[in-house]
Batch of 3 targets.
Target 1
Amino acid sequence: MSQMLLKRLEVQINADLLQLALTHSSFAYENDCDSNERLEFLGDSILGYLVASRIFKKEASLTEGDLTRLKNSIVSADALSVAAMRIRLGDELRLGKGEESSGGRKRLNILADAMEALIAATYLSAGIDEARKFVDKHIIPMLGDHLVLREFADPKTTLVEKLTRLNRPTVRYEIESSGPEHKLTYRASCYSGEFLLGQGEGRTIRSAESAAAAQALANIREQ
């Protein structure tokens, strides 16, 4: 399966590092092995540098504050999780039984963390130029269209606007929760009228709705 992922990524990643990048802490705990958390730490810094460098050169008219807001939108968990969905990263993750059964493959924070881990794995395997290639292909393209960037940064608002343009019923969300009281997982189902557009999960209602809206936008594009 990971070979199929590499074809979608179109970058060089060492096999062992790729496996590590796909290994969530829940799987590591159950199988007494390392998780992707250290790679995530490194990938976060590499991603920040590469995005900051790119927008500094591309958006010469923006102020420091505007550059910061733009960068934060691109490297946000919402944006990274949508990018992860587009490469079907959730299908490749190594999850513990609990995360697997509770829908971890669609969980926003897990997908975002795995994207950062993949960036670090690419860097360690083949250097900064290959990491830049990863970021340029899968994350930077949103800079080409601020409407696309808006989708990544605020999928809920983008979905409302898109449904309005399509003359479809307004969006509504149905929320379910599961798990212990101190560690609830929320699952949002996103509807237009009676039609289910997408679903998503998160540790908060807001993140679950954002994930559901992002999935809805992806599904609308495929229709």
Note: The radius of gyration is 18 Å.
Target 2
Amino acid sequence: MPPVCRAQRVFLLCAWILSTFHATAQVQIQTSKESALIHIDGELFTEYHVGDVYRPYFYPVIGPNGKGMTRNFPMKKGVEGEETDHMHHRGVWFGHRAVNGSNFWGDTPDSGRIVHKGFHRLTFNKKEGSFSTSNDWIAKTGETVCTDERIVRIYNHPKFRMMDITLTIKASHGDVVLMDEKDGGMATRLPHTMKVIRRDKKPVEGHILMSDGSTDAEAWGKRAKWCYSYGPVEGEQAGVAIFDHPGNPNHPTWWHARTYGLIAANAFGKGHFEKLSDKHAGDVRIASGESLTFKYRLIWNEGQLSKEQLDAEFRKFAAN
């Protein structure tokens, strides 16, 4: 057998390194000034955008069936069938319309910005990956209203795409009031084919299911441990759930669950959702120097999960 030349040895070594990396590093995270790219088994799962944005968000989110599980607009325009309402509904995000009077939900010149300060504690391996970030909540006036720290954990789950988000809001610059508002919390905007009702009244096949048994239009403003939306995506059935951890303030949370394709876990909207005369009944206050932590789990699945399956998954999350 002829001897192996130096070039061949280098090629074989590189091939061995690449194959070993692929086999062992099944969750991969690559960060830059603009975003964090997250791959599972070499395939894109999601991208966390932190550059010149009003607030950080995940887009796209690719489900286990390889389909996009969020609306494309406004990041990608001109997709057939997509409506162009609510430009600030970007993928998966956390925000709030009224924090000390500043709007951290909208995308307008009058809105504040949640400004990314950096990625920290980046780790990933065969089973999971994680990173943390720090952010300043800066009002239109330039004043820093508060800060936050986020821990994002992505799992290499055999059945789902699954992500935990732990968010700690810190009253680092004085007292903070997260005011009673319907627009706030942990949210995702869904593919247009998963809507329950289209604005143009054309038929769709999407549905909403909540842990308390509420469905579709009756889900708005209800309190529940989890909210699940399911329907066809590019011709195949799929779903997404948000779980509200039992340790969260005001658990079980209220849900800003809209039939046009929005689900948001909102712990701040008591007066709005329960239609109370006191529109500050749901105000959440954080004293100067103190903090408040929220933890959520999001899962994306192929097919359709039953209430019993979702309850079982919630119990696993609640045990953490």
Note: The chain has three helices and 19 strands.
Target 3
Amino acid sequence: MKQLLLATTVLALSGPAFAADQPVRMPVKAPIAAPVFSWSGCYLGGHVGAGWGHKDISEPTEEFFQFFATANSPIGVNTGGGFLGGGQVGCDYQFAPNWVIGAAGDFSWASIKGQGLDPFFGGKNGPITLDAKTDSLASARGRLGYAFDRFMLYGTGGVAWAHDKYDIQNLVFWGSGRSINICANSAFTAVAPCNPEGSETRQGWTVGFGFEWAFVANWSMLFEFDHYDFGTRTVTLTASNGFGNGVLVPLSGSVDVKQRIDALKFGINYRFGWGGPVSARY
């Protein structure tokens, strides 16, 4: 019995000493979650770019004669690349978890202009020219995107508006009505070319697609292509130097204008995020 107690005591005392000789293990930390960027929030920004388009200008059928071209024969006016620039504002919400839905509005000052020549008739002092210029574009759109962390591909579409100016040079006659309307010089002492002009704001639709990159903190940049279609509208043009029906009066007549515009934009946004990270990545 004494021998059993002695052996038990030796084992009890040697246990802690044996454990003390074992290497000490370092504590293991749990991995730190890396936040994923969220596109949820609102933004304000600016953009620059270029626009180009095409307008078909035609004259409705006149009772006695056509002032340019032939009845319902459109004359195309193409524009080369013109400058545009402005601002945009909008809000996005990210869900499920990579889809992004949002709404935005933008406005652009523009100089998208072109000139066409009447291939059918000649003017009083040379060819008849048709000039068209778009000096502003605006839109209210929705967009749907798919996010790859700080990168997003998206499509967009909505309602659009354009402000346009038109003029026709070197017409012999102008104005609606049953009489031949001519134009006079500034002193109204001699017959002169009729140069009617006018402007309008028209509504249409737009669709497009783009790419946006949140490159640092709250800042993102985007590249976007948009197509605008404004359909066909009737526009009234007025020659201020008219001499019609024996009196000095402005002469007004109508033309039909079909309009399409394409635009390429580069923009910078400052984003006011509201939702924090969508999820955590380990």
Note: The radius of gyration is 36 Å.
